[in-house]
Design brief:
Helices cover 73% and strands 0% of the residues. By secondary structure, the chain is mainly α. It starts with a helix and ends in a 5-residue tail after the last helix.
């Protein structure tokens, strides 16, 4: 573990000073990062889209493909982070690496795209949580019929809860660690519980070789693209 003085010296070497307290440990940062890129939750939220527009074959092989692509992106970001350790991330790197003539514009554009991406990602996560909560309620109340306004209400309740939750910063590092362990444990529990308790199982050919295109498009390529989008990590 590096001392705070070492971190301060490295930060000063890039032209910055430590103005805010640092209360995140490596595990807390890992928990926050894993929560943002919680691939299995993102896949489960859009799983029905992938099944209808590609079937099991696209889900299985698409995950492998997206994993390879995401690994390449992660390696590239790791190199940039190592060379330019700055909290600004992409917009800072764009300013440093773009030609000087276009540096400000590239940084400005990258920052706005990153902000827009965070808004859309947060919205998709909030509606996924609201929809999942409604689904859980419907499981225990079979006569309950989900209406569109129920989904919107669940979406807004999630947004409001997240807003007030993030207003109190000291607990966020602990929450990041809890989110990491809860996500990992729930993944393995669901991975074991669902197949073991399922009343029926499909054969291997259905899982690894069956393509389904219920998109309404005649071209299977549309289904492949749609299915791949549904299994791409939320971030």
């Amino acid at each position: 573990m590096k001392s705070p003085d070492t971190d301060a010296q490295r930060l000063m070497a890039t032209g910055y000073s430590i103005d805010l307290s640092r209360n995140y440990s490596v595990l807390s940062v890992l928990g926050v990062g894993f929560s943002l890129t919680n691939s299995w939750f993102g896949i489960s939220a859009g799983l029905i889209t992938g099944i209808n527009s590609g079937g099991p074959v696209l889900i299985v092989y698409g995950i492998i493909l997206i994993t390879l692509v995401s690994t390449c992106v992660a390696i590239s970001l790791a190199e940039l982070t190592s060379a330019y350790p700055n909290a600004g991330g992409q917009y800072f790197w764009a300013n440093e690496l773009a030609p000087q003539r276009y540096a400000n514009f590239a940084s400005y554009l990258t920052g706005w795209f990153a902000w827009a991406g965070s808004i859309f990602t947060s919205a998709s996560i909030s509606i996924a949580i609201g929809t999942a909560a409604l689904g859980c309620w419907q499981l225990t109340h079979p006569d309950f019929v989900i209406q569109s306004w129920h989904v919107f209400l669940g979406y807004q309740i999630t947004n409001i809860s997240a807003f007030f939750f993030n207003c109190y910063g000291p607990i966020l590092p602990t929450v990041g660690q809890l989110a990491l362990w809860i996500s990992l444990l729930s993944f393995f529990i669901i991975l074991v519980a669902v197949p073991s308790k399922a009343p029926t199982h499909q054969d291997a050919k259905f899982v690894f070789a069956n393509f389904i295109n219920n998109t309404g498009w005649k071209q299977n390529g549309i289904g492949e693209v749609t299915s791949t989008i549904s299994i791409y990590p939320p971030s």
